[in-house]
Amino acid sequence: MVGLVTPPFELSPDRHEVDEIFEVPLAFLLDPANHQRQSREWQGELRWFFAMPYEQHYIWGATAGMLVNLARHLAQGSSRAR
């Protein structure tokens, strides 16, 4: 689910799940050029994941995967509208 919020609003992140809250321009998130596929070895197996480095931040894993899926979904919708 995606939603719009109007400032001011208060966020209550779960400190076990969220390291930091920051803003990223939507244009950056939607640009496929910023969607990296990276891999790491973990417990003897190669694991692949998405990453989207932005300034001093490193968006990766499930968060980056959800953003890539959103970008792809929105791109599909815009190509259908033409």
Strand portion: 25-35%
Mean pLDDT: 90
Q: Gap between N and C termini, in Å?
A: 24 Å
Percent of residues in helical segments?
A: 25-40%
Uncertain segments of ≥5 residues (pLDDT<50)?
A: none
Q: What does the main sheet amount to? A: 3 strands, antiparallel
Number of helices: 2
Task: Tell me what you see in this structure.
With 82 residues, this protein is an alpha+beta fold. It has helices spanning 26-30, 61-80, and strands spanning 36-42, 45-54, 57-60. It has two helices and three strands. Strands 1-2-3 form a three-stranded antiparallel sheet. The chain is globular. The mean pLDDT is 90.
What would the keywords be for this entry?
single chain; 82 residues; three-stranded antiparallel β-sheet; 3 strands; globular; alpha+beta; 26% strand
Task: Give the SSE map.
Blueprint: H1 26-30, E1 36-42, E2 45-54, E3 57-60, H2 61-80
Antiparallel strand pairs: 1-2, 2-3
Give a brief rundown of this model.
The chain has 82 residues and is of the alpha+beta class. Helices cover 30% and strands 26% of the residues.
